[in-house]
Each structure stands twice: as C-alpha cells, then as structure tokens.
Write a structure and sequence with these properties.
There is one protein chain. This protein has helices spanning about 1-35, 65-75, 105-110, 125-140, 150-155, 160-165, 190-195, 220-240, 250-255, 255-265, 275-280, 325-330, 345-350, 355-365, 370-380, 390-395, 395-400, 440-450, 455-460, 470-475; strands at about 60, 80-85, 115-120, 140-145, 170-175, 245, 300-305, 315-320, 385, 405-410, 415-420. By secondary structure, the protein is α/β, with parallel strands linked by helices. A six-stranded parallel β-sheet has the order 3-2-1-4-5-6, with helices on both faces. Strands 7-8-9 form a three-stranded antiparallel β-sheet, covered by helices on one side. Strand 10 and strand 11 (about 415-420) form a beta hairpin. It is elongated, with a radius of gyration of 28 Å. The protein binds oxidized coenzyme A (CAO). The site of oxidized coenzyme A (CAO) has 24 residues, from helix 2, helix 5 and strand 5.
Amino acid sequence: MANKKQKNGKASKVRAAAKKSARKVVKLASSTKANGNGLPKPSSKPYGQAGLALQGVRILDFTHVQSGPTCTQLLAYMGADVIKVERPGAGDITRGQLRDVPNADSLYFTMLNGTKRSITIDSKHPKGMDILNRLIKICDVLVENFAPGALDRMGLTWEYVHKLNPRMIVASVKGFGPGPYEDCKVYENVAQCAGGAASTTGFREGPPLVTGAQIGDSGTGLHLALGIVSALYQRNRTGRGQKVLCAMQDGVLNLARVKLRDQQRLAHGPLTEYSQFGEGVPFGKAVPRAGNDSGGGQPAWLLKCKGWESDPDAYIYFITQAPVWGAICDLIGEPTWKTDPDYATPKARLPRLKKIFARIEDWTMTKTKFEVMDICNAVDIPVGPILSMKEIAEDESLRKTGTVVEVDHPTRGKYLTVGNPIKLSDSPARVERSPLLGEHTEEILSKVLGYSASQIAEIKTSGAITAPDKSKAAA
Ligand code: CAO
C-alpha cells in the first residue's frame, strides 16, 4: 500500500514537472513569435488552397537528357517556375530521340519535361549571355547536368554566378565525384555499373545485369532535388546560395547500400539468407549476384502463377515472413511444416529454401497472380504481383491518385506521364504537358525579364534566340 502511495506521489510530481515544462514551451513559443521568427501564422485556407509548396521558386534549368530533367520536373510539379534553356533550333537532344510520332517531341522528352517553360538561348552569343545574366539575377536555382567543364566553358563559373546573384544555388549532376573519373561523361548504365548495382544484380551463373529502373539518372535527379530543397531551406537562414553536387555513382551506391552492408558481413561468415548458402555454394570475396533473393532478412523468391507458359509476367514475388509461416503452411497444404523441426524456425528453413519455394510454387501455379495477391493479403502474407507496364498504364487506382496522368500535347496528342510520386497534403501536384521548343521565349523575355517589343525584335535578328537560317547559309 505504502509502495502504491509512493508511486502515486512520484507520478503526480512527474505530472507537475511535465506541466511546468509544457508551460515553459508555450511561453518560449509565444516569445519566439513575439520576437518575430519570420514564420507566418498557420494559414486559415482549406488544405490544398494555400498555394504550392515551391511557389515563388524560380529555376534556371540547363538540364538535358534524363538525370537533370527528372529533378527539375519534380520541382515544377511541386510548384516551382522552371525555365528550361535550350539551344536554338536543336533543343534537348531527347526531343528527337526514340521518336514514335513523326515531327512531334518524343515521349523520352515529354515525360521528363512536364510543367516547364522553354526558352531558346544561344549561350555562346553575346546577346544570349545578356539574357542569361538577367535570368541569373532573378532565379533562385541554376540546375545543370552538362559534361564536366561545359558550364565553365560557357562562362558560367560558380564565381561568376555567385557574384551576379549571391543567393543563387548552383546544382549539378555529374557522373563521378572528385577523383580519377571526374572528367568522364556518364550515362545511366555506366552509373549502374560503377555504383555497385550491376555487379550485384542478375543470377550467380550469369553476367552482371543492369536494371530497368533508372537508378542512375532518375535516382540521381531525386537526390539532387533533395539537395536543392535543403539548400533553399538553409538559404532562409544564411541568405546565400551554395553549390549542390550529386554524382551518379554516389546516387547509385546510396540505393545499393544494402549490398555494401553484405560486403562487410561477408568478413564474418556466409550470407545465410542468399539461396547459394542453402545450395552449399561457397561465397567468394565480393558480394555475389543474388537472383531474386530478398535483400532483407525475410527469405523470398519469384514464383510462377497460372498462365506463366504464355504470359511472361504471370509471376508473383513471395515473401516467407516468419510471423506468417503458419498461414503459409496452411495455404499450401503443408500444415505439418508448422511444427516439423526441419521447417518450424527461420534458421531451420534456411538450407531448405529451394525446396520450400518449389512447394509454394506448386500452389501459386494453380492461381492467377491476382488471386494469389488476394488470398495471401487476406492473411497478411506479403506478396507482389509482377505488373507489366501495360497493366500499370491501365491501372485505375494509379490514375485516381495522380501517379499516372494523361496530358494533352499540341503536336503529339494525349500521352501518359508519371505524376508526382510524392504526395503533399497541402500542395497538389501540378502535372502539365512539356513545352514545345522555345514556346515561352517571348513570354519570358517580355513578362519575366521586361524586354520591350523592339528589343525582342532586335534580339531575334541577332540570332541569339533563333536557329541560324539554313537557307541563307546555303545561299
Ligand atoms: N547554347 C549554346 N551551347 C549550348 C547550349 C546552349 N543553350 N546548351 C548546351 N550547349 C553546349 C555546351 O556549351 C557544351 O558545349 P562545349 O562542350 O563545346 O562546351 C555542349 O552543348 C553540351 O555538352 P555535353 O558534353 O554536356 O553534351 P553531350 O551530349 O556531349 O554529353 C552527357 C551528354 C549526358 C554524356 C554529358 O552531358 C554528361 O556526362 N553529363 C553529366 C552526367 C549526366 O547527367 N548524365 C546523365 C545523362 S542521361 O543518361
């Protein structure tokens, strides 16, 4: 009894102390407010109507191909005004690559450059440089992914840009960070290979494999976007811009970090969750390719489903998560495996994974991948159907969430694009079609930079924003 009293006494003291410190916090908060910490009062507008997350941020977008454009497209979806600078007459090389509709921008370009404005400027023309100088003064971020040294060769060194606009953030994607390969040009699969992804992807018996997900380009674009937003946040405190650099090799390695984890584990013994352990195949010095093994601690494999003979995507990824082992045994008709010492524990199962998955596959092959999905999820077994791009394109739920969006384009008509995979409750994504080459040149010159009509006419004849007239050159 006395103990209980003591405990109660202690508890009320704790409560009193908590109340006191809560009062302190409230006091502190109101005093910061009184001091004017710069934060506005919470908006009273309904969620989704208080503007977009990056509204007011202006991006000078010098990106091309894939890595840079994915970054600036994401920032545009979040509300930034992205002004894409392209070479007059040519534009981003992807406009014409993998073209499916004659004379229309390719899907390669349109799906990476939505919600942006396009201005054509020859950065090597003196008048072009004048326009760029004006843009630098009024933009918040310059994003580029030229080959190493190209931006400097244009005259846009960090020192130059920083002097013109000390608030400017200069964000770059390069293939490699400082080191022996820093001057190399890099494309997606080079990064996948150099970042450790390819050596750990594929089957043990086969060569290294690259993956379809663009972890080198789009993955690095994502990293860069985070760097930019962080630099914008820091600028609120410091008032100055900074350089942001994302090397594609680093981005891929960041995404492949579990394999660097396994490399270090190898020093302490075999990787028991890799199926090669159960098969008795010894490990070498480096992390091997693990086929469809799970990268985590829950053994898993890809299994055939009904129709696999004719449908290359009739497969399901099946995870034998330990807590639902009993449910798996019941489903596949092996209830004795729940108590059999050879199968009852995760450790006992490790050397028998091949046999176990073969047995589960006997069951999955009697069902479609969607039936397996329904049956397994009803009892909390994590499984994943192999969805083809056709199935994804037609998926109603992805359309509803805005992850897959149909937009209309003046020269190619309707096309599907991937919307914003990041959902903000107060900032609806702005997913619009990509711009035509130079579509906004005049609009930006007049409305953003304040050039008069006669000045624009003069710039046009100078050749700074228009492609050289080929017929004149021939004559
Ligand atoms: N006006 C005038 N010149 C322009 C211009 C403009 N508006 N825009 C670009 N240019 C010029 C640049 O000044 C540069 O010229 P110089 O080399 O003579 O200085 C040139 O166009 C751009 O060159 P680049 O070397 O970047 O382009 P590339 O096609 O030869 O290489 C790539 C492409 C991707 C390999 C290279 O840019 C690169 O390694 N980028 C960094 C890594 C990266 O982002 N890779 C992802 C690519 S997507 O898979």
